[in-house]
């Protein structure tokens, strides 16, 4: 059991360390500053005991910084202040105990750690039991389907669980790349540690380095406090870099260095922070093609590709559409406390006929709406709406049509999009109004 002691009084700290080490099961680390303690968090302590009055960072600030990185890590506060309001404040924020420095400190600390150890052991026993029950194919409860293409994905995930190899997940938007990443993490030996997801496309280029590696106070304008980056937050666990192809080219070299050296330096800092992480990346792009185009570093590509898992689009998953639809119907019914619905045969045919360009994410949205629209106990075909995306999703080059037919389809598409505004449609397509009118007149009128 790893115990961190943070106390700026060398004599007092050594006394507590000596006393705790009388138990051979305790591995005790003593630090005289908050900075030293924070730099060693990669060791993954089980308990941290912090002094309230430290020379570099006040105990309450150290408490917050530790909780930001490891919110569930037990912290005991030891203070020379016999102040009830300070103690209550720490306990409200999640401190496991508040001990005043006096002649009884070592006995009180010993007792407090024993209580925490019992709680930790109990939680570990529960986790072990859960692991025994769920370790075999538990990810199949999260990734729904029975198609052959999905079974191949299950096989890849199983292989990923046996090591810390990097994993690269590819697939169209909405195929469930983050779901796969979580399935790998929460079925691995790191499942009790953090899972930190980062969407590259959502982070401004100028803030990316700070988001990744954190920054020190005063590192740049607006950096009023130290910030812990995503990599440091994920220490001991898994970091999931979604849309990795969007990573700024200049930052790619810094990411490569961090992965090679297994350490980072916060922006504006000099202290090296050791990393123990598992990397999973995802993209809807072909990274190999991005390398050839010069948009992605070749050396970084080979570093992160690891075990590749290519997720099939929903249209290639056979009857999984209906299995997922049933799953989403049941979920909707449970969340909204209504009676579960059935899919009519016509509704099933309509779902199977559609290509689902938005994949699983789109199917869930379609099913949620169908549950709202349905009358009675069954979802009919008319209850299923594709938000007018069915036509838009069709590729104009599919099928066998003449150039004239393709031209007609394009003009009708933009007419519908522009509420039959002929002038606007002609302007967008850079054609004459008469051409648009000719297409309108060529379409058979319906009663």
TrEMBL record:
SUPFAM superfamilies: CheY-like (SSF52172), P-loop containing nucleoside triphosphate hydrolases (SSF52540). The modification 4-aspartylphosphate is found at residue 51. One of its GO terms (molecular function) is ATP binding. InterPro entries: AAA+_ATPase, AAA_lid_NorR, CheY-like_superfamily, P-loop_NTPase, Sig_transdc_resp-reg_receiver, Sigma_54_int, Sigma_54_int_dom_ATP-bd_2. It comes from the Bacteria. GO terms for biological process: phosphorelay signal transduction system; regulation of DNA-templated transcription. Residues 143-372 form the Sigma-54 factor interaction domain. Pfam families: AAA_lid_14, Response_reg, Sigma54_activat. Transmembrane segments: none annotated. Residues 116-143 form a coiled coil. PANTHER family: TRANSCRIPTIONAL REGULATORY PROTEIN (PTHR32071). Keywords: ATP-binding, Coiled coil, DNA-binding, Nucleotide-binding, Phosphoprotein. This is DNA-binding transcriptional response regulator, NtrC family, contains REC, AAA-type ATPase, and a Fis-type DNA-binding domains. Residues 2-116 form the Response regulatory domain. It comes from Chryseobacterium ureilyticum. CDD domains: AAA (cd00009), REC (cd00156).
